[in-house]
Amino acid sequence: MIKRIKFVGIPILSVVVGYLIFALAAFAFFQISGQPPHQSAPVSFMVGSTIYGCVFAFLGGYAAAFLAKRRPVTHGVAVALVLALGAALSLISTIGKGAIWSQVAAVALMAPCAALGGWRRAKSSLPGG
């Protein structure tokens, strides 16, 4: 029973850690910048924060894949799904109440970067990768 809990727990924990890498970085970014994520922003800020979010989404997917040790792409995709789900729920709750650029960027660009992080980990863990 303990081995089963450990086997199930580590993959789940790895996805949680991967998502937290993204989410805490995003939270810190918006806190430090003073820019609310659900309000209009200058294009330069939107581009910069999207790139920042993509980098940390990639790192989150990579970290989840690394920590899980098995099926790295699956764990990167799991982080991407959690990220996209959170962004989609935020998008639905924000429509008509504020800007939606950050949620659209998260679903369209950042979530795929998390999956890409898992894929990159898979490639780097192969012999010669």
**Helical stretch tally:** 4
Count all strands and give the number: 0
Quaternary status of these chains?
Answer: single chain
| Main sheet summary | none
Radius of gyration: 16 Å
Strand content: under 5%
Note the gap between the termini: 36 Å
Number of domains: 1
The computed structural class is mainly alpha
Mean pLDDT: 92
- Report the helical percentage: over 70%
The SSE order reads HHHH
Q: In terms of per-residue confidence, which ranges show pLDDT below 50 for 5 or more consecutive residues?
A: none
Which descriptor suits the 3D outline? Answer: elongated
Structural features, described:
The protein has 129 residues and is mainly alpha-helical. It has one domain (2-32, 43-124). It has 4 helices and no strands. It is elongated and about 45 Å long. The termini are far apart. 35% of the residues are buried.
Blueprint (SSEs and pairs):
Blueprint: H1 2-33, H2 43-68, H3 72-94, H4 101-124
Question: What's the short version?
Answer:
Helices cover 81% and strands 0% of the residues.
List keywords for this structure.
4 helices, mainly alpha, single chain, 129 residues
